[in-house]
Design a protein that fits this description.
- Helix 4 packs across helix 6.
- This protein has one domain.
- The chain is mainly alpha-helical and 175 residues long.
Length: 175
């Protein structure tokens, strides 16, 4: 199908995918989660699991801020983009149709658990370092300076997201 076909169909049926407006934000979340300092200075494992966990940590912060900024629907779309991306990544890795759903289910469960853990830590109800060791490092405690780096960088990101306008955030301005 040519590249004009989706535009033709959108004009014909008058529909666009509302998730398209959130793509810059999702792209920014992934770019932030892939920053080398997380892996170099923070000793987050530079592996498939480590990159997933880092992107989910950033995604969790963004989703929490979207909730605070009355952008819950945009958070749903952002989560759907995450699922679509993970589905594509799994298929590229050769995971078949039969088990992709189970993997996606586990990933969504991981996102939900991390959202709860990071929300509690950022609200002062739990220790962020402990939540990071459990979720980002999967129970393996990194060097103290590495953990301090990640904790500090995530708290800085959290503060920046809090001072970013709803409109800027939805455009993907994470800094």
């Amino acid at each position: 199908m040519s590249s004009t076909a989706p535009n033709f169909l959108q004009r014909l049926f008058g529909r666009t995918d509302p998730k398209e407006a959130i793509v810059p934000l999702y792209t920014a979340v992934v770019a932030e989660g892939r920053q080398p300092h997380w892996y170099r200075d923070g000793q987050v494992p530079d592996s498939l699991d480590g990159r997933f966990d880092m992107i989910v940590a950033v995604l969790a912060l963004v989703l929490m801020r979207l909730d605070e900024k009355d952008a819950t629907q945009e958070g749903v779309w952002l989560t759907e983009l995450f699922v679509d991306d993970m589905d594509g990544q799994l298929r590229q890795e050769g995971i078949g149709d039969v088990v992709v759903g189970k993997h996606i289910g586990r990933m969504m469960s991981a996102l939900g658990g991390r959202l709860s853990a990071y929300r509690a830590a950022l609200a002062g109800e739990a220790d962020l370092a402990d939540a990071l060791v459990r979720n980002l490092y999967r129970g393996e405690r990194p060097a103290p300076d590495a953990l301090a780096h990640v904790e500090s960088a995530l708290l800085s990101c959290w503060a920046r997201l809090g001072s970013t306008s709803r409109e800027s955030l939805l455009r993907g301005d994470l800094i």
